[in-house]
Specification:
The protein is mainly alpha-helical and about 170 residues long. Among the domains are: about 1-50, no CATH class; about 65-120, no CATH class. It is built from 4 helices and 2 strands. The longest helix has 29 residues, at about 70-100. Pfam families: DDE_Tnp_1 (PF01609). This is Transposase IS4-like domain-containing protein.
Length: about 170
């Protein structure tokens, strides 16, 4: 066995809860790292761990891997997940404020489930908003209605979905 490492044990009780929490650190000098500061940092660390869990497990799905094949597209996919997380957290914050609740007490998993159930209803909305959305199929002229082209199948379809948009060509003076 190796040599023993001296440690400092900080024990405190969370207000509102009956649980004692112990933090063990190798920072022995209380002036270099006051107990109150370490306790605060410990809880911030767990907020970060919780956010990682939200990304990896609840937002993407426990067994879902990133689909992108290039570093640029992986980066794009990760940014998309971050934006979705930010939007969900914003929605949770707004709902908590409207309901007079603490935003930390709103369940992320429940919010994801509610949005997943609700989102398909908005898929048919045009970018111009609700007023421009057709009310029913009966009011459409069937001769002029547009049909969506079905996406290609197989490898070509997967590649087409993962392909980034081309950058515009630089303008040349003639």
């Amino acid at each position: 066995m190796g040599e023993p490492i001296p440690v400092r044990v900080i024990e405190y009780r969370v207000s509102g809860g009956g649980e004692n929490i112990r933090i063990i650190t190798s920072i022995l000098d209380p002036e270099a790292a006051p107990a109150q500061e370490l306790a605060t940092l410990y809880h911030e660390r767990w907020e970060f761990e919780t956010a990682l869990d939200e990304f990896k497990t609840h937002l993407r799905g426990a067994r879902t891997v990133l689909r992108s094949q290039t570093p640029e597209l992986v980066r794009q996919e990760v940014y998309g997940i971050l934006l979705a997380h930010f939007a969900l957290r914003g929605l949770m914050h707004e709902a908590a404020l409207r309901g007079g609740r603490d935003p930390d007490r709103i369940s992320f998993t429940h919010t994801v489930n509610v949005v997943r159930r609700t989102l398909p209803g908005f898929a048919a909305l045009p970018p111009s908003g609700v007023d421009a959305a057709p009310r029913s199929r009966a009011g459409r002229d069937s001769g002029r209605g547009r049909r969506r082209a079905s996406p290609p199948e197989g490898k070509a379809g997967r590649e087409a979905q993962a392909e980034p948009l081309p950058r515009p060509a630089p303008e040349r003076a003639v």
